[in-house]
Design a protein that fits this description.
Layout lengths: L1 E5 L2 E6 L2 E6 L5 E4 L9 E5 L15 E7 L6 E8 L4
Antiparallel strand pairs: 1-2, 2-3, 3-4, 5-6, 6-7
Length: 85
């Protein structure tokens, strides 16, 4: 069994259980039901990297991107609060 979960992620079931994999390289991130974000490589940037209108958020928020630790496919991006923000 294999079906899409979200962009660049899929759920894969086999005799050993159900896992969340990168859909680009099939790297297993975690078992289904666990937090797949914990297995990702993370980088943070100034919000201005998303465009000049986001510059006002600098110091309060960071742009966080999550990547597959095996192939580097972008899995998620979000604004998160900066420490002390």
């Amino acid at each position: 069994m294999r079906y899409p979960f979200r962009e660049n992620l899929e759920v894969v079931g086999d005799g050993a259980g159900t896992w969340i994999h990168c859909s680009r390289c099939s790297h297993p991130l975690c078992r289904a039901g666990e937090d797949w974000k914990r297995a990702c490589k993370r980088t943070t940037f100034s919000p201005a990297q998303a465009g000049p209108l986001m510059g006002d958020l600098t110091g309060t928020y960071l742009l966080e991107k999550l990547y597959c630790p095996s192939c580097g496919a972008l899995i998620d991006s979000d604004l998160i609060e900066a420490d002390g923000g």
